[in-house]
Amino acid sequence: MSNRKQRAEIAKETLDILERGNYQNRAGKIIDLTDAITAAKSRSIHYTPDSFERVFTERDRRSQDLSPNNIKFSVTNETTLHAARRLIESESDRDIQRFAGW
Q: Between residues 82 and 91, which one has the greater pLDDT?
């Protein structure tokens, strides 16, 4: 099976799990994700290209008291996996943790 096909199957399985709100682990236990999914949705923000000006204005407002050396903000046209790999190859562990939300 090709990597692309495997990734597509994993993606479909992930979407199915999100739609159901649970999955069954290898031990046969049903793991409920309903609360976690609800929390993730309620804390998510969808930015469209039309909202970038507002996003950058808010970024500037929030960061005015911070040292410019501590801020790095970028928008890239790449998948999450590509961004993670790029960060792993070029940035410190602390930056990777910030990207992943740890």
A: 82
pTM for the structure as a whole: 0.49
Select, from the ranges 19-23, 73-77, 96-100, the one with the highest average predicted confidence (pLDDT).
19-23
Compute and round to an integer the Cα radius of gyration of the chain.
18
CA–CA dist 77, 50 (Å, integer) = 16
**Residue 46 falls in which region: left (phi positive, over 0), alpha (psi -120 to 50) or beta:** beta
pLDDT at 1: 60
Contact 12, 23 (CB under 8 A): no
> What sign has the CA pseudo-torsion 63, 64, 68, 73?
positive
DSSP category for residue 28: S
For residue 67, give the amino acid letter.
S
Structure token pair of residue 62: 């929030």
Sequence-ordered alpha helix ranges (H) in the chain: 3-20, 34-42, 52-63, 80-90, 93-100
